[in-house]
Structure formats: C-alpha cells, structure tokens
Amino acid sequence: MNIDVITLFPDFFTSGLQSGLLGKALANHIATVNLINPRDFALDKHHRVDDIPYGGGVGMVLKPEPIFAAVNSIPRLSNTQVILLTPQGSSLTQNTLQDLATNYQQLILICGHYEGVDERIRYLADREISLGDFVLTCGEIPALALINGVVRLLPGTVGKVESLKAESFEDGLLDYPQYTRPAVFQNLEVPEVLRSGNHQLIAQWRRDQQIKRTQQRRPDLWEKFQEGREQGAEGE
Fold this sequence. Notes:
By secondary structure, the protein is an alpha/beta fold. It has two domains: about 1-150, SPOUT methyltransferase, trefoil knot domain (Alpha/beta knot); about 170-235, Orthogonal Bundle (Trp Operon Repressor, Chain A), CATH 1.10.1270. Helices cover about 35% and strands about 15% of the residues. The protein is built from seven helices and nine strands. The strands form three sheets. Strands 2-1-6-5-7 form a five-stranded parallel sheet. Strands 3-4 form a two-stranded antiparallel sheet. Helix 1 (about 20-25) links the parallel strand 1 (about 1-5) and strand 2. The radius of gyration is 22 Å and the shape is elongated. The two termini are about 35 Å apart. The model has no long low-confidence stretch (mean pLDDT about 95).
C-alpha cells in the first residue's frame, strides 16, 4: 500500500514511522509512506500556506492553492482514497481501518492545521475522518493514528493473524482481560480458569468477560452489538 501524507510538519512523523511493528512493516516494504510538504508548492517567495479568513475571525486558514498542487502532484494508483483529517469528519473506527486496509491500494492523507482549511480543499477528499469529538492542534496526530491502524492490518505486519481476530472491536465487543506470569502478584491472582488447561472453559470465560466488560464500559457498543445480532437473526 502507498500512503501519501500532505503535511506542514514532516518531522512529526519521524519517530512514529520508525518505531515498533509499524517501523518494521515499512522497512519490509509492506507499505510505503511519502511525506509531502505543501510549502514546496506555495506560490510566493515566502512559501506561505495560510492566510486570514474572509469575513474576519481569529487565526489563520490553510490556503487552497498549495494543497491542491501537492495532492495533484501525487501519481495515482488505480484504487485511491483521499482523506481529510478534520474534527468535522466521521469518527475513526476499526471498521474504517479494515475498509481502508482491504479495499484501497493508496491513501492520500491531508493534515489540517491552524483554524481550519479553506472549504474548497474539502472537494479534494473522498471522505473526512476524525479521532473523535475533540479538537487537536494539528491533523498529523490523527494521520499517524490512521497509518498505524491501517498498516497493522496489512498481511505480514502482525506475525500471528489470529491475534487480529481476537481483539477489541473486531467482533463489536471489547477485548477480554489478559494475564501473564506470575500467577499471584501483590495478592492479585490470575483467574483459576486460565490456569486450568481446559480450552473450552477458557474460551467461554473470555467471551463472558468480553460481554461483561462491554456492557459496563461501553454501553453504546453493547447496544450496537445487540442490534447486529437481532438483524442477523432476522436475516436467517
């Protein structure tokens, strides 16, 4: 997969793209990330990429010309998705990451900045994505999160594919509790069932814990999970 990032701060990605599984995946060419600075496409000698908003207001707005030129400079593959990272976008979910990892060969990410982007920049995007209902200083943070989430789903990034199937959100539920040695730590004991060796009981305990944890911590997810089961039952 090719991932092209339109960013005013390429250095922001230096550590994140070199660390952990993501760094190994990029080193093994499972995906490539290209960082493109729109300042290189600015029209004036000062490489200015922002200006004051029409109608007045506080702060600066990203100009359309450098962003359009930067996006249009990127060679396109046959199946490309252009994404604008903005607080006004749809919340990033595991289903979104799965869709991007499965159905696209190329992602072009536009990182918003300052007080926002010129509205015309939105015409470049196939979709807008946000990390949630809050505002950050820059679009680089959600862009890096999206890159990490997508690349880890690509074949070859995670050693055991089974681990991707048994984690939070993959089936609509939160993940079950995990333990490792020692069996007792500061009077906190690993549940006996996990030490029993009975795989059927362990599987049932983990499923029960997923349900319990989702009900308690994310009632919104539990409601969606129930709705999905009801719809599935109606379709049978």
